[in-house]
Amino acid sequence: MAGKTGSETKKITRYRLLIKGVVQGVGFRPFVYNLALALGIKGSVLNSGEGLVIEAEGEEQDIRNFLKELKENAPRLAKISNYQEIELHPCGYRSFVILKSAPGNDKEALIPPDVATCPECTKEIFDPQDRHYQYPFTNCTNCGPRFTVINEVPYDRPKTSMAVFRICDECAREYSDPVDRRFHAQPIACPKCGPRVEVINRQGVRIDVLKGWLELCWDILKEGKILALKGLGGFHLICNAKNNEAVKVLRRRKGRDAKPFAVMGRDLETVQKYCLTSQREAELLCSSQAPIVILRKRTSCMLPGELAPNLKTLGFMLPYTPLHHLLLNGPFDVLVMTSGNYSSLPLVKENSRALSELHEIADFFLTHDREIVNRCDDSLVRVIDGEEQIYRRSRGYVPGYLSVRRESKAPVILGVGGEMKNSFCLLKKEQAFMSQYIGEIDSMEGEENLFASLSNFQKLIGVKPEIVAYDSHPGYHSAQVALKIYAAAYEQIQHHHAHLASCMADNEMDNEEVIGIILDGTGYGPDGNLWGFEVLTGNYSGFKRWYHLAYVPLPGGDMAIRHPWRTAVAYLATFLQERGKKYAAMLFKDKKVDIIEKMVARGFNSPLSSGCGRLFDAVSALTGICLENTYEGQAAIELGEVALEPEEGFCFQPYPYEIRDGIVFPGGIIEEILKDKFSGVPAEIISTKFHQTMVHIIVELTERTAAVTGLKKVVLSGGTWQNSYLLQAVKRLLKARGYQVLTHSRAPANDGGIALGQVMIANWRWQEKCV
Ligand SMILES: [Zn+2]
Ligand SMILES: [Zn+2]
Ligand SMILES: [Zn+2]
After folding, report:
1. Given the DSSP bridges, would you call strands 663-665 and 658-660 parallel, antiparallel or unpaired?
2. More confident residue, 376 or 76
């Protein structure tokens, strides 16, 4: 080794290191052990509740190399948030050992998210000579379940749902051999000692056949039947994605008319047969998070349209457990893989509940005896203009944290989140822990799910909230939920302010003033109306509303949201008066237009809304693209789908609109759209013109706001920004005009991200009170 000259006495030094962050369950201890062996370092390594504690003693140069390697070449899945070292007197260690985990007082050690099966394990399950051949629970130090099986920290087998499986001798040998790739793999399992699968029918009777469970499942799928499959974070409902009839049956039984189904493809090449993938999209599909990636279908794509009606895109993911790999390496290269729940209820995770809740949807069940501790839906991402947008942040990402700017001694804050697409957020020091996808919380099951997930999250992170922040909508269930959680203080947060703050925090911004273009469906405004097309300025401490879309009554409130034609009638009656009524009668002949018009005129059960989503709904219904929303945002999504791509270069004169006293009046837009429609202009041209008009309005409002305030940073938040046309075009135009445009990438732009904004706003209210 360099610098060694035989007889010299070398200086021996000793260091104690504390490494915090995601350092457990990621192969950190074997990495340290092997590194110490290679460099002749003596001492020890252990997992404590605080993080990884290393004692390292050796010659000065070796220690230096050791520290350098630790920092620079840490295991792929590790995420170091804090690194402390102190030098101590040498104490004469003789060897390097891995010590038994010690619980710490402060739970600083972070649990890694679940990791998709690694290539080595995949190879083993297809190798008839290997003892893991065809074994659906094969995993190693670099892959397998984590968050979904853990009850408590530190992350060790007795604290997971693997505790009930007695490890066999062979697994025990691999587990304790520091050079083995399963060294300290907590969920280690083999056919001899690990969990087992079984196939049962709707009556709960186990089916045993000579050819085994895998071929039995293939036979079931070949017959066009629906199989409920127990996966990593819950049950999936699966069927042959190429069997149009089977897909239709699944839709009917699940009560899901048109909402797109996710599909799992055998491998990347398979996905590329049906969809186009950019480099970034391919990376995401193959990543250890293995999310569903929304991809553009090839024009030659022969998969049934029933998978994603009226859409040019399809959500694809790759197998992320050995069970998936095995299922997809037979007669099927694509399987529908949709969440196992009925309508808006939480994902089913228990075997008994699967039978009781899914027996009318699934024909058979492929289940197993490893308990799912934490429910976790698949994550959903899309790449727009080369940048990743996360629509649902769940499996593979949770419980990873987002670092944010705040005082590290500030109190622990909980953001309860929104009403739909719920996800809560716990803010601890400078780390924002966003929960897995909770979904809708206005049912008993939904509320139960939120409380159970919150209690598990608190245990894993080792905190209790001191302040609880929640949406200011008085009718929201989330407000009632928030007040049931014990805390020293409660903070009500305006919905669109939370969106603005969420996007700022997503970009790790300090408390500086920005322009926020917040576009979504619905959020409660301080004036008692439903906001949703908002040009704000503000920061974490407060906001000011500069511009908004003109209010329109929503006849029947939620009913209007479900039936966009009602909103269209309201737009016509409000902005085009008598002319509008004539149009409405022509367009919606078979609907009860007169009742809706009366409701609008009298303001009966018709809350006022400036929601951007509602304008999209109205235009979608007026052009005949979508009259009914069978899933959230359907009309707006289908309208966006038919727009010609921005790069196709079509440029139209925007539809006329008017801006008066901070209000955008869309009457001209509605009227001109109808003129176009009645003179035979195709829907895709109308949609493109409408989108371009929206871009025009947004850019004009930004320029007006910037001219008065001098602000040049713009944040874009709210569910409408999932519209890829709008996002691309606005970003490009504003950037070209010298603005710094900040969008979401780590947290969802939709209501799944508002909890992050809630905690940041509550944090600043606290901070300002302290001054
Ligand atoms: Zn592996
Ligand atoms: Zn075993
Ligand atoms: Zn929102």
Report:
1. antiparallel
2. 376
Distance 122 CA to ligand 2 centre (A): 17
Average pLDDT of 170-193? 92
**% of the chain surpassing 90 pLDDT:** 83
- Residue 153: predicted pLDDT: 82
Query: Any idea which ligand is nearest the CA of 196?
Result: 2
Q: How many residues does the chain have?
A: 771
**pLDDT at site 584:** 95
Nearest ligand, CA of residue 191? 2
Residue 611: nearest ligand to its CA?
3
Q: How many C-alpha atoms does 614 have within 13 Å on its Cβ side? A: 32
399 preceded by cis ω (within 30°)? yes
Q: Which ligand is nearest to the CA of 418?
A: 3
Which tens digits make up the pLDDT trace of 325-356? Answer: 999 999 999 999 999 988 788 999 999 999 99
Of 319, 269, 311, which is closest to residue 292 (Cα–Cα)? 319
> How far away, in angstroms, is 184 Cα from ligand 2 center?
13
Nearest ligand to the C-alpha atom of residue 188: 2
Average pLDDT, the chain: 93
Assigned token pair, 367: 């289940």
pLDDT tens by residue, 369-402: 999 999 999 999 999 999 999 999 999 999 999 9
Q: Decide if 96 contacts 36 (C-beta within 8 A).
A: yes
* Spatial separation of the C-alpha atoms in residues 567 and 240, rounded to whole Å: 38
Cβ-based burial of 385 (10 A; exposed 0-12, middle 13-18, buried ≥19): middle
pLDDT, residue 79, reads 83
Compute CA distances 445 → 252, 344, 346, 450, whole Å. Answer: 22, 10, 7, 9
- What type of residue is 16? R
Query: What are the beta bridge partners of residue 420?
Result: none
Distance between alpha carbon 630 and the CA centroid of its chain, in Å? 22
Tell me: the pLDDT tens digits for 251-293? Answer: 999 999 999 999 999 999 999 999 999 999 999 999 999 999 9
- Ligand nearest, relative to CA of residue 195: 2
304: helix, strand or coil: coil
Task: Write out the residues surrounding ion ligand 2, Cβ under 5 A.
Answer: 168, 171, 190, 192-193
Could you identify the residue written with the tokens 């996002």? 727
Distance in Å, CA 150 to ligand 1 centroid:
18
- 204's CB contacts (< 8 A; 6+ apart) are 355
| pLDDT tens per residue across span 4-23 | 444 456 789 999 999 988 88
Compute, in angstroms, the gap from residue 158 CA to the centroid of ligand 1. 20
Q: What is the mean pLDDT of residues 691-698?
A: 97
Give the Å distance between the CA of 285 and the centre of ligand 2: 30
3-state secondary structure 601-646: HHCCCCCEECCHHHHHHHHHHHCCCCCCCCCCCHHHHHHHHHCCCH
Tally DSSP H helices, then E strands, for the chain: 22, 31
55 three-state secondary structure: strand
Please give the pLDDT value at position 107: 57
What is the CA(391)–ligand 1 centre distance, in A? 28
